[in-house]
Write a structure and sequence with these properties.
The protein has 17 helices and no strands. By secondary structure, it is mostly helical. The chain has a single domain, classed as Growth Hormone, Chain: A (Up-down Bundle), CATH 1.20.1250.20.
Length: 423
């Protein structure tokens, strides 16, 4: 094993760079769209539960279809499938653009527009069930095995960078050009992603069991996840932390009613966690996190819980921004370690199914967390709901550290060396 770390190893492959452009454009569009929808819905209803329903509408199809989507991804050519996902997203974004047309509220009642938004978000959940596993599977076809950890870091960094700029632009664009034309910008970015994707060649299907019965395929994928302790432990821990730490779903309430900073302040608050995570991930390209990964993951999620509690209690805008920034920084550590575990531990022929389970555990917990936050805010009040979520996150970390000493001792150094030897 070489002692020299090349932080730009994955970037030396042309198609991987194109893939990063596709991922950036899609995440930018998706994160910006979610922010614009949140703002529009809360402005229409002034009800925290309506924000929770947005998350619920997306998570129902995303979870319900996840395992079947993973089976299909493992059976199909990845680039073509990703093209179909982006086309689906573009159609949904166009629908939201039309629903936000100026003056439409004078012709349709608020409830009809709201139901239309919820319906399109539901369809977006169906698209997302396929999007995550397809992207995860495609990465492994663009770079050699020995640089999977580096590719995972750059891919996650790109995700976070887009998550920084998408919400930030959403906040300012709502203020300067309004919800309707903000939706038009989103459509433009999805088209850009589509054009870039055509520059990547079709890839071979590595699954030797093409045509395998669907339920046998799903059982194999689930058995792998539940029997691989490192994978199952990382997914479970992150799922519970994200579920109870979903304070970002309530940011429109903090921006409008508690901190009173308007749409510009809302954009800054929404972008702050992603800025912190992006900085962490860029640092991780030079300082890998695979050594003592279990302990680092536990400390990172504990730090996330503390930051959420501070944010919930804060009545000062810049203290809130700093708390969210730090929550993103430690969450970036968690994301890199989880993605590295998945890339190193997952066989090529099962990437779609394992990524689908990941989306059920972690990806969908963002939306379930939004729903949980909306419900608890309705029952307890907004501040109490956020503090409760942070406290539950800390409790989860403590229990995991106590009952799973094997996970505490998790170290990925040997896995990295083995992949370098294979390549």
């Amino acid at each position: 094993m070489s002692n020299t770390i090349d932080p730009y190893a994955a970037l030396r492959f042309k198609e991987f760079n194109i893939f990063l452009g596709v991922r950036f454009a899609m995440v930018f569009a998706w994160s910006m769209q979610f922010i614009v929808i949140e703002w529009q819905v809360y402005t229409m209803t002034k009800d925290p539960l309506s924000l929770g329903i947005i998350g619920l509408m997306e998570v129902i199809p995303a979870v319900g279809m996840a395992l079947f989507a993973g089976h299909i991804v493992d059976q199909k050519e990845k680039r073509t499938l990703l093209i179909k996902c982006i086309l689906g997203f573009s159609v949904i974004s166009l629908g939201l653009f039309l629903l936000s047309w100026p003056g439409l509220e004078n012709e349709w009642d608020t409830r009809s527009i709201l139901y239309g938004i919820y319906g399109l978000v539901f369809l977006g959940g169906l698209v997302r069930a396929f999007l995550g596993p397809t992207i995860f599977s495609l990465v492994a076809l663009l770079v050699p095995k020995k640089i999977y950890p580096n590719a995972a870091t750059w891919s996650s960094s790109t995700w976070q960078m887009a998550s920084v700029l998408g919400p930030a632009l959403a906040g300012f664009s709502i203020s300067f050009i309004g919800v309707h034309w903000s939706m038009c910008v989103i459509v433009g970015f999805s088209v850009m992603a589509l054009l870039l994707l055509f520059q990547i060649d079709k890839k071979p299907i590595l699954n030797p069991k093409i045509g395998e019965p669907v339920f046998e395929s799903l059982r194999e994928g689930l058995n792998f996840v539940f029997k691989t302790k490192a994978v199952f432990g990382a997914l479970t821990l992150d799922m519970i932390a994200v579920l109870f730490g979903g304070a970002v779903a309530l940011l429109p309430i903090f921006a409008q009613d508690i901190l009173q900073v308007g749409s510009e302040g809302f954009g800054v608050l929404r972008a702050a966690p992603a800025v912190g995570a992006a900085i962490t991930m860029l640092g991780a390209t030079r300082f890998p996190l695979h050594k003592k990964a279990g302990k680092k993951l536990l400390w990172a999620i504990a730090g996330f819980g503390v930051c959420i509690i501070v944010f919930g209690l804060s009545t000062y805008f810049w203290l809130s921004v700093i708390a969210l920034f730090l929550s993103g920084a430690v969450d970036g550590v968690s994301m890199i370690i989880r993605q590295t575990i998945l890339q190193l531990k997952t066989p090529d022929n099962m990437r779609g199914r394992v990524a689908s389970v990941n989306s059920m555990f972690v990806g969908s917990s963002n939306e379930l967390g939004a729903f949980e936050s909306g419900v608890t805010a309705k029952l307890m009040g907004t501040v109490t709901a956020v503090v409760f979520g942070g406290t539950m996150t800390l409790l989860t970390v403590g229990i995991t550290a106590f009952v799973s000493p094997t996970f505490r001792r998790l170290d990925l150094t040997k896995d990295v060396e083995d992949h370098e030897a294979e390549s």
